[in-house]
Amino acid sequence: MKAFKQAFSAEALKTFRSKVPALTLLGLSLGPLVGGFFMVVLKDPEKARKMGMIGAKAHLVGNADWPSYFGFLAQIIAMGGMIVFAFAASWVFGREFADRTVRGLLATPTPRSSIVAAKFSVIALWSALLSAWVFALGFLIGKIVVLPGLTRQLALSATFDFFFCAFLTILLLPAVALVACLGRGYLAALGFTFLTLFIGQIAAATGWGAWCPWSIPAIFSGAAGPRGPMLFYFSYWIVAITSLAGAFFTFAWWNRADHTT
Amino acid sequence: MSDFAISTHGLSKRYGDVLAVDLLDLRVGRGEIYAFLGLNGAGKSTTIRMLLGMIKPSAGHAEILGQRIEARTSGLWRKVGHLVESPTAYPELSVRENLAIAFHLQGLKARKRIDEIIEELSLQPYAHRQAKNLSMGNLQRLGLARALLHEPELLLLDEPANALDPAGVVEIRSMLKNLARDRGVTVFLSSHILAEVDRLATRVGIVHQGRLIEELEAEELERKRDRRLEVTARDLDKAEEALRSAGYLPQRTEGVLELREERALESPDEVARLLVTTGEAPMRLAVTQEDLEQHFLRLTRQEGGGK
């Protein structure tokens, strides 16, 4: 535990002294802002009609009410989160290779597994905080816009759905970290993220979404319609297994690969 | 406790068809300053990385302070400081913050050690400067500061004098000498600045094409160096003839007569007297000694493949 604390202190210092957390915060904050704007547009059908394209896009969100708005927030975290959280993960792991600072991590009294665990923890914490921020900002915007239809039961179920969706998205990050290590930098990991988004879309569109880990968070969020008929119990295990496999191979890579960077 | 700070046993590394390190058997005693010399691609950095567990050997193994090195080795690194190849640092962090990262990873307690090492490496003016704005020389100092932060028993330094200005080179040389002398720190360093190694190392290992081709003590190097008496005169033919008549065996190279016999090296005044009496007074008479650089180049040429 002491070694983990040492590694976590180092990782936290690196992360929170960089501009990347602020960039990700800014990036994801656009989601609830855009959602709020769509709600304002939808509340006034005449204005929506005048706005043409934007009005049409706003209609895709649904109605100007809390259920539609919560659904939109869940989709933001499932789709936008997949990109932004993956960006964070590829930075946390990939920068050590891009900046060649990994040399300073490999032969220290802090075991490599503690360093990898600390990196995963920072990514998870970072992503969780971002999710909480998006939800809080979204909720605030919903209140400002004065959306109708908020009940206690809806608030509870929407909160659960949002954070479970964020949790599923976060579970997919070890695979991104592994690719950042294998590719020794950010680029391969970012490329992998876009590839998985593409694969996720194709799988969902062709009816295989329940079997594809990169479709499951988006399907859960309701991006592809009601999730009930599309997901089954094993879908969540697929995400968990993908996560464990990514983490296992990342730990193994740090402990076994030749480090020539 | 092992007598050796570093020992390798048939240490080898192969990358496909390339044998980067071939059956390396090194023994570095505690408190020694061991210089590891070799041309680019000779296998120096690969060896250092294997010593640090960053690269898995294809065959053989290494021991540091009596402990066998594996990728999962960790506690041992509390006693070892290292600088591998060019210095690196987190660019957006200041010098102090970069040292704080190393401080955390070393599990150190006393924060004042960061201030001490900043002072020891003369980094005070740059303590709050971001690493991306440091000169190469100061980045190298930061790398050395990180290696020395936890007051290690053993230092593994890859080209420690790289990018330092002449004053910095002298400063680092003196610091390493003092560490070895006063604190018994073992220093294992690779360098291409052979003149530096010449003045610093107690033992030198020459590696070529992955193999250790010579290992010698500083005194032994002194003995093995090629010494010669160089003579120049207005008429070299006549001077050569006079020397031959007196039983010397001069060799002529580029307008200079070279004598390697012990009696010439021990008594150059005799040679001068001989030439003066034969009317060929020397214009220049000097005993010269091959430096480490020349010795190294001669040796690698003999082994073949020297550049």
Describe this protein's structure.
The complex is a heterodimer of chains A (261) and B (307). By secondary structure, chain A is mainly alpha-helical. Chain A has one domain. Chain A contains 12 helices and no strands. Chain A has helices at residues 2-16, 20-43, 45-50, 53-61, 66-98, 103-106, 112-145, 152-171, 173-182, 187-205, 216-221, 233-256. In chain A, helix 2 runs parallel beside helix 7 (112-145), helix 5 packs parallel to helix 8 and helix 7 (112-145) packs antiparallel against helix 8. Chain A is elongated. The two termini of chain A are 28 Å apart. The mean pLDDT of chain A is 90. Chain B is α/β, with parallel strands linked by helices. Chain B folds into 2 domains: 4-223, Rossmann fold (3-Layer(aba) Sandwich), CATH 3.40.50; 227-289, 2-Layer Sandwich (Alpha-Beta Plaits). Helix content of chain B is 36%, strand content 26%. Chain B is built from 11 helices and 15 strands. Chain B has a 6-stranded mixed beta sheet with strand order 7-8-9-4-10-11, sandwiched between helices. In chain B, strands 1, 2, 3, 5 and 6 form a 5-stranded antiparallel beta sheet that branches. A 4-stranded antiparallel beta sheet of chain B has the order 13-14-12-15, with helices on one face. In chain B, helix 5 (166-183) links the parallel strand 8 (154-158) and strand 9. The longest helix of chain B has 18 residues, at 166-183. The radius of gyration of chain B is 24 Å and the shape is elongated. The relative contact order of chain B is 0.14. At the A-B interface, helix 1 and helix 6 of A face helix 2 of B.
